Amino acid sequence: MEIDPEARIDHGAPLPPYRQLAGILAARIERGDWQPNRAIPSESQLVQEYGLARATVRRAIAVLVEQGVLFVVPQRGTFVKPAGEV
């Protein structure tokens, strides 16, 4: 399911907000908003930008980490995984 990188969170949609956010972030990465091995915005910034709870943002990031789109460096942030890297 393709999600528009400019989409907003729809709290009335059947897709849970964390899945919507994961899709939006993945679409923004695909569009080139964040380059490989570069950090995405912090959890706090994503909480403010999308109006979600920190736990929801963390869950969305965890989905993308599990899918191999992002990786986390403790005390440094969450980074875009280079394409083709597993």
From TrEMBL:
InterPro entries: Bact_HTH_transcr_reg, Tscrpt_reg_HTH_GntR, WH-like_DNA-bd_sf, WH_DNA-bd_sf. Pfam families: GntR. Residues 15-83 form the HTH gntR-type domain. Keywords: DNA-binding, Transcription, Transcription regulation. SMART domains: HTH_GNTR. This is GntR family transcriptional regulator. It comes from Micromonospora fulviviridis.
